[in-house]
Amino acid sequence: MPLFEGLGSGGEKTAVVIDLGAAYTKCGFAGETGPRFIIPSEIKRSGSPEAVRVVQYNINTEELYSILKEFVHLLYFRHLLVNPRDRRVVIVESILCPSHFRETLSRVFFKHFEVPSVLFAPSHLMSVMTLGIQSALVMDCGYTETLVLPIYEGIPILSAWEALPMGGKAIHRELHSLLSEQCTLDTDSGTGLSLPTVISSVPEDVVEDIKVRTCFVSDLQRGMKIQEARFNLDGSAERPAPPPDVEYPLDGQKILHVKGSIRDSVAEMLFEQDNEEKSIATLLLDTLVKCPIDTRKVLSENLVIIGGTSMLPGFLHRLLSEIRSLVEKPKYRDALATKSFRIHSPPAKPNCTAWLGGAIFGALQDILGSRSVSRDYYNQTGRIPDWCCLSTPLPDSVYEAGKNQPPLMKRAFSTEK
Amino acid sequence: MATLLQPEKVVYLVRGEKKARVPLSQLYFCRYCSELRSLECVSHEVDSHFCPSCLENMPSAEAKLKKNRCANCFDCPCCMHTLSTRATNIPAPLPDDPTKTTMKKAYYLACGFCRWTSRDVGMADKSVASGGWQEPENPCTQRINKLIEYYQQLAQREKLERDRKKLARRRPFMPQAFSQHTIHVVEKYGLGTRLQRQRSGAPISALYGLSLKEGEDQKEITIESAQALDEVEPLPEDYYTRPVNLPEVTTLRQRLLQPDFQPAGASQLHPRHKHLLMKRSLRCRKCEHNLSKPEFNPTSIKFKIQLVAVSYIPEVRIMSIPNLRHLKESQVLLTLTNPVENITHVSLYTCEEGDPDDINSTAKVLVPSKELVLAGKDAAAEYDELAEPQGFQDDPDVVAFRKSNKIGFFIKVIPQREEGDVTVAFKLRHDFRNLAAPIRPTEEGEATSEAIWLTHHVELSLGPLAT
User: Fold this and answer.
1) B232 to chain A nearest CA, in Å?
2) Which CATH architecture is the domain A137-165+275-347 placed in?
3) b/e for A144-174, b at 16 or more Cβ within 10 A?
């Protein structure tokens, strides 16, 4: 943190930067090198024993409002320890976030917490800011989905987005079903018991922990062999030797034997091509095909991978090899002339890269105000501008209220005074 | 019987943005607006910071500098318990005479719960008890600061352009050189297109039109753009065959406690300073007066300002419920407590037909029609054994008993539904003397302030019908 920050001399206070993800929320202050806290996006209520997820798109507005209010209250008063009224807010979010969620979130911030302004920053664009370059092909492997969005010269090429619902959630589901089918449990009463007989289902945070600590992504050759062995019904393909089993202790009394074959095969689902021949790697190539021809070379040589799921050991290496092998396939060989792929390493861990970009942007106090939605604007119009909605009135900073609107067409010879 | 004392049985209606039904013990009373306030309709503010283990107050400037972390206390990176400093004696050579050795104290951190010590991660023992341990610094700090400086320069440029454009448009009478035509041309072929920047809702374009190639005279901060790598390191060969030592691998929760490093191995888990807690003060949104302000000292639980509802509004509590039967009248015994020191007059009214607040009641209720008088709260009364009779004439049908500032009274309940819980609602009207209001200077003889009448909507849940 620069030295003058602590003295509080001049300028406004540092903005609050929040990256509200489906699984984890990263929160902190602008201008810092990392988030202060990474906490799960859920709240505990006295009613239900299970925690309630914050980022839900299908619940009604009132319920979502109260959940978000409680969550943001926790963020401010337990983790950030600042007054909401003093500081601007930068929210890093996915471009595909539903408008209803965005509106409810901004209502919580403006009406209940009375923040001075809110800026919704797209996560892909923010991660490019951490590198000092202008164009990149950004892939966000998160919890609910993997979303690819190219950024060219600082502008997202919105028409070329690609997404797959392959993310942490899908991996957890697959891992849970594999554990229930194949793994045995040791308890006081006996050894070698099958999982469903002892506990009905393994809680998701335990499955997540098993994934983080024991699973990994094999390299291309090994991964291909594992996939062949799985889909090969007559058993002619040999599966490569599985890694050793792991004895995982569950709540102090039970030991779960995680089979070695699960450890390397669960991540293969990200790279398996489904019926439509889509996998995470094809997303990148499909995006490139959709982009304008002259942008492709720049984009393919500037790949940026962010998101928590990409932190699995071996993920990046495998992804790069997959892309390089897929680009030789007939589907892409003629469509894409560029064959060179390069990957960036941002100055933060992949799950915090988007947050860091938001923090860098939030530190630019000169323009943060003009680019944010201020509380006055929100109180006047009652809604926030959205990229998918063309009927939003312009913010007041662009033209003074009371004067005529500026002409919409810029003509060389203007007949107006 | 203790279930009758549960706070959720008797709720008061709070008229905020959203109508909420909250027990009186969880409400605040703004005596300037003369209204009840719940936690939802007040604004919360951070009052003071303190460390939860050493209970030391930290001024907010220092808290900001230390990133809201205590300077002396540490958290165990494995189990998040507070670390304690332990001392051992190690032989060390004397500074004057290298041949002789003397015992010196060496300090290390240890967790009393999971037995983790600072020696496990390779941190050397320190010779001072506190202040010796440093948290490791993020290696990317330099690069990030350079990026921020570079972007700040671009942002300054954008701000100048914006201000210049604002200024240019404001002047209606311009010299010939700057005709409308010229301005349009400049705008059209100038720095980037303005169409993107006008709509702040559009996905924001990151400062792209302002490259440093346009020769400005100030010293420019250049930055080398990040280099993309051709190859990524693969997993080591023995990764596939190496057995996993589970205690050596960090859990996700342990990793996320250190967002800058997120180490995968337990031997890289460094302890962090303990995060502070804060004391909160509450403020009424309408009149901006403080409703609750805690003491500055972390060890004190008192409040400087404490405008809680139980000290201003008479509280209704359920004392006993008889068997409730469908469409049969039964008497429920309630108590009413007077929290203030002067005599309070309380009258109860049933809710009228079509009252918009009355949505939950499932039974008809008949409340006493006469006004109830409550004696003031006398702090010394509990020590006075021979309490003099208070001289109130009570109707025995209405008032069951009277004890200093509390009375017990009956209401008649007729459940209207055959099943489900019985809920009744009524209005409570009492007089409130606002001691906080300034005494008007014109009326000098008035010792007591004016009484205003406040009405509250109270709901009681009396439980299920008797089978």
Assistant:
1) 5
2) 2-Layer Sandwich (3.30)
3) bbbbbbbbbebbbbeebbbbbebbbbbbbeb
Q: Which of residues 247-286 of B touch A (CB under 8 A)?
A: 249-252, 255-256, 259-260, 262, 264, 275-278, 280
Domains along chain B with CATH numbers:
69-138+266-275 (no CATH), 312-436+451-464 (2.60.40.10)
* Alpha-carbon gap, residue A377 to A356, rounded angstroms: 27
Q: Closest Cα of chain A to B252: distance in Å? A: 6
Summarize pLDDT for A269-297 with one digit per residue, the tens: 999 888 888 899 999 999 999 999 999 99
Contact list in B for residue A340 (CB cut-off 8 A) is 230
Global pTM reads: 0.87
For A234, the 3-state DSSP assignment is coil
Q: Which CATH superfamily is domain A16-128+351-398 in?
A: ATPase, nucleotide binding domain (3.30.420.40)
* ipTM for the assembly: 0.86
Residues 388-417 of B with CB under 8 A from A: none
CATH class of A168-269: alpha beta
Q: Does residue A329 carry a pLDDT above 70?
A: yes
d(CA B17, CA A124): 37
Q: Do B159 and A366 touch (CB under 8 A)?
A: yes
Asked if B88 reaches chain A (Cβ–Cβ under 8 Å), the answer is no
Residue ranges of domains in chain A:
16-128+351-398, 137-165+275-347, 168-269
**Helix residue spans in A167-219 (DSSP H):** 168-182, 195-198, 204-214
Other Cβ atoms closer than 10 A to B235: 17
The mean pLDDT of A335-343, rounded to a whole number, is 87
- Identify the band that residue B437 occupies on the pLDDT scale cut at 50, 70 and 90: low
Domains A16-128+351-398 and A137-165+275-347 share a fold: yes
**Mutation target among A81, A124, A305 for the B interface, most CBs of B within 10 A:** A81
